[in-house]
Write a structure and sequence with these properties.
InterPro entries: ChsH2_Znr (IPR022002), NA-bd_OB-fold (IPR012340), Thioester_dehydratase-like (IPR052513). It holds the Pfam family zf-ChsH2. With about 140 residues, the chain is of the alpha+beta class. It has two domains: about 50 residues, no CATH class; about 80 residues, no CATH class. Helix content is about 15%, strand content about 35%. It has three helices and eight strands. The strands form two sheets. Strands 4-5-6-8-7 form a five-stranded mixed barrel.
């Protein structure tokens, strides 16, 4: 059995980190880049030579929109309507996540758009079945 076959699940490790308030990625030893959220191999070069790394949780909201109704999954019904967006992490990766600190109403979304890129900080939303990554407006 190869080393890759005995490694713990990257997905389980990611969600255990979210539960503890840690934001985890995989760093590739071949190209040095991060894969976030983590998977078993590097999303950039395809190498299986990756190891766990924690990231800052800091980023920049590039753009945001609101969800559609009904929520895309029952776990999100309690927080709908909500805002989600594309965030460029301090480490460079771009992720999609729920955005906290702004209501999903036209006036607030328009004001956010006019502000341009906005700093955000990652946090964990505790849902009934698993933790969920979210970012809160920081500025």
């Amino acid at each position: 059995m190869s080393n890759e076959d005995t490694r713990p699940s990257a997905i389980r490790w990611y969600y255990e980190g979210l539960s503890a308030g840690a934001f985890r990625a995989m760093r590739c030893s071949a190209c040095g880049r991060l894969t976030f959220p983590p998977t078993g191999c590097c999303e950039h070069c395809g190498s299986w030579s990756v190891e766990g790394a924690e990231i800052s949780g800091e980023g920049t909201l590039l753009f945001a929109t609101h969800n559609i109704a009904p929520a895309c999954h029952p776990r999100f019904e309690a927080i709908a309507p909500y805002v989600y967006g594309h965030i460029r992490l301090k480490e460079g990766n771009i992720v999609q996540a729920i955005v906290l600190g702004v209501e999903a109403v036209p006036d607030q979304l328009h004001a956010l758009f006019k502000r341009g890129p906005v700093p955000v900080k990652a946090e964990t939303l505790t849902m009934q079945d698993l933790p969920v990554l979210a970012f809160r407006l920081a500025g």
